[in-house]
Amino acid sequence: MDKDINMTDKEYSDYVDKKATNSPMLKHIIMAFLVGGFICVIGQLITNTFMHFGVPKDSATTITTIILIFIGAFLTSINVYSKIGKFAGAGSTIPITGFSNSVVAPAIEFKTEGYVLGLGANMFKIAGPVLVYGITSSVIIGFIYWLIKLFL
Amino acid sequence: MDMIIELLKVFVTGGLICVIGQILIDKTKLTPARILVIFVTLGVVFTFLGIYAPIVEFGKSGATVPISGFGYSLAKGVMQEVDQIGFLGIFTGGVKACSAGISAAIIFGFLAALFAKPTIK
After folding, report:
1. pLDDT(A3) > 70
2. Which contacts (CB < 8 Å, 24+ apart) does range B82-88 have?
3. Dihedral of the alpha carbons of A84, A35, A55, B91, in degrees to the nearest 10
4. In chain B, which ranges are continuous DSSP H helix?
5. Residue A143, Cβ density class (10 Å: 0-12 exposed, 13-18 middle, ≥19 buried)
6. Pseudo-torsion of CA A25, A31, A36, A39, nearest 10°?
7. What percent of chain A shows pLDDT beyond 90?
8. A68 to each of A12, A96, A98, A150, B25, how far by Cα in Å?
9. DSSP assignment, residue B51?
10. Mind telling me how many Å the CA of B120 is from chain A's nearest CA?
11. pLDDT digits (tens, 9 = 90+) for B89-102
12. Quick check: is A59 in a domain?
């Protein structure tokens, strides 16, 4: 084992690559498809239920987002979401529940460093970049859209 | 029967969007954080180009629940608001459309973190 510890960066990188290519990609893809699809179906069922009781479509979609974020946060706090993530991969990362997980997981982890600079600051460690790039790109396309409307 | 077909479309659309993410993770070593950023940005751009709306039309929650749907809401909100109030809409439309999601993530995230015990790894 001593030899393993003394691996150079290059050797380690080769070792990781070897392990990584051995991982069954097809299995990852199937799991991502099944879990990701399943979470979206739950979302649709929530939306349909609210629409069934006369809630307008836009509000029903918003309520669905809120409920899914709640579910993601709850499952993260009881340590279940990370277990789903182990076999679902992107299937649990990409849905909005994964966004919620990305907010809650670092918040829990850094809670010990205090409520302001630990919990508060680290909450948006991953979700922050999502908001930065999402909002930035939306303002840019908003500006382009405004320009187009101005000249057409 | 209509409902089953609807849910099947949702399932396939949502599943396929996640599969694209999974392939990117497996093939490019991109971290999940980068995948989320790429998907939300692509959601915004594709909505602007008029590509994402037909996907939402077809796949409903299958296209709105993935994080690219967050980008869709941002872009749709901005364009609607520019239509309604003009220039100022560039700054107000996006976040306004996503305000519920952002607020929910903050409050539920805060509460969940408050009550959960940090796990020792």
Report:
1. no
2. B82/A142, B82/A145, B82/A146, B82/A149, B83/A149, B86/A146, B87/A146
3. 80
4. 2-28, 32-48, 52-59, 61-64, 67-85, 89-115
5. middle
6. -170
7. 81
8. 39, 7, 9, 39, 24
9. S
10. 9
11. 999 999 999 999 99
12. yes
Q: What is the rounded distance in angstroms from the CA atom of residue B24 to the CA atom of residue A59?
A: 33
Query: CA B94 to CA B44: how far, in whole Å?
Result: 10
- Closest to A142 (Cβ–Cβ): which among B16, B35, B79? B79
Residue A83 sits in which domain range? 26-109
Interface with B, mutate which of A23, A78, A94 (most B CBs under 10 A): A94
CA distance A32 to A39: 11
Q: Which residues of chain B have pLDDT under 70?
A: 119-121
Q: Would you say residue A93 lies in a domain?
A: yes
Establish if A11 belongs to a structural domain. Answer: no
**Nearest-by-Cβ selection for B105 from A23, A79, A103:** A103
Token pair listed for B35: 């995948």
Q: In a 10 Å sphere around its CB, with 0-12 CB exposed, 13-18 middle and 19+ buried, how is residue B62 labelled?
A: buried
Q: Number of A:B CB contacts under 8 A?
A: 268
Q: pLDDT confidence of A8, banded at 50, 70, 90?
A: confident
Measuring CA to CA, how many Å separate A114 from each of A19, A29, B106? 38, 39, 17
Report yes or no on A103 lying in a domain: yes
